[in-house]
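Before the break, one more example. Copy the sequence into your notebook; we will annotate it together after we see the structure.
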Amino acid sequence: QLQLVESGGGLVQPGGSLRLSCAASGFTLDYYAIGWFRQAPGNEREGVSCISSSDGNTYYADSVKGRFTISRDNAKNTVYLQMNSLKPEDTAVYYCKADRFAATVQAMCVEPGVNYGMEYWGKGTLVTVSS
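Here is what the structure looks like once it is written out:
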């Protein structure tokens, strides 16, 4: 079965850190751009950070630049999102997406609803930032 599974979410105080993982099974992530997206209650899903399949090119939303870092470990078939200096407004369900044919990482992140022809979504992991 082809799937992505997110993990690492939880409750953290403002200023704290979490590392999210996105693990693939049933297929290899080597040829896929990977993105992290989030959706807070009442809001549309938004792109947080995306990373290309091969050259390491990355994109970050302005709201997370300097605080979040995306990385991938193809040997482990896993992508990570290191989140530091967390704020209450980072509270959301975080999803990862694997996209085989995204034109650019920016396009993938800025327009999460666009399907370029071969994509997989995880079911999400909840991040709550609260004191």
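The radius of gyration is 14 Å. The first helix runs from residue 105 to 110. Try to locate both features in your own notes.
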